Amino acid sequence: MDVHCKVKMPKAVVTEEIPPLIPEGCYEGSLGDCELFTYKGGEKLCLSFIIQAPDTALNGVIIKRFYNWYKRKTSRSWDFLRDYERVLGRHVDVGDEISPEFFKGKVLKLNVRTVSVSIKNRILPQFQKYSVVDYIEGFSREMTRSDLPF
Asked: 87 CB contacts (<8 Å, ≥6 apart)?
């Protein structure tokens, strides 16, 4: 049976690169880009980190870290605050303002994990798995000219 559709089928253009998949572990990386966006009624912060692994295929790979973003009240269990304090090496005082700007110019210790289950709790096939920064373990060192990609 030949079925003809009288409505023109919609098309979409894929605009995102395939996210990288690297072995889980601890890597050095520096802050590349920062994006604040709205998702499901809340603000999210996405930090893109550039892996610093000279003389390896992983050097320059970009891995992302996502946070809920709160402008006013925060708690000590907020992931961004915990990562911030690990880089700082101490607790942040009540009333202090914090920003991802603090991560610029630093090489950080990044704990990378593989995402193998979708947001809808479905197991992802191997080709759809990808890597994210699970948390920032702490400060490694200040960036030098040799850390720059050019």
From this structure: 102, 103, 106, 108, 136, 138, 139
